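Hi team, as promised in this morning's meeting, here are the two structures we talked about. I've kept the exact order from the run log so nobody has to guess. The first one is mostly here for context; it's the second one we should focus on when we meet again. Sequence first, then the predicted structure tokens.
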Amino acid sequence: MKSKRFSVEQIVSAIKQHEAGLSIAEIARKMGIAEGTFYAWKKKYAGLESDQVRELKQLREENEKLKRIVADLTLDKVMLQDLNTRKW
């Protein structure tokens, strides 16, 4: 898996610089990213502090894990019901 190039603090700092009046082109040039990347970050992290972003990521990871568990348990239940309905 590809490692992240920028930390959460750097991303939030870049968004705050834009809110303070710095142009997106200048921020993108300084950070070495495309403007589209900045817009994606802004869409995802605008209005959040770095600790809130970390908490959001943790909650999303936990939610994914729980969804996988539910899917596995649902599959087990369906398999058991299928076995139970068969006539031997």
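And here is the second protein, the one for discussion:
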Amino acid sequence: MITKEDKLRIIDEFKRSEGDTGSPEVQIALLSFRIKYLTEHLKEHKKDHATRRGLFKLIGQRKGLLKYLSNVDIERYRELTSKLQIRG
């Protein structure tokens, strides 16, 4: 799972201002980290369907946040997707 140090590092990297923990960029980055972790877990445990369902829920959440960000500010969206190396 995500450790406290990893979470703080991700927040520091993607925050927009001091004390920012809830901007779409931070939320998407944290979800992306969890998605990568669960994807690696499922490569080893192919029959873990409960985790697979949770992964799909996280992907849906991230997709919604990405859609929101693209509607609000397309430049922030493009910068974030290139930084995270995800398709938009």
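Starting points for discussion:
DSSP finds four helices and no strands in the chain.
The chain has a mean pLDDT of 96.
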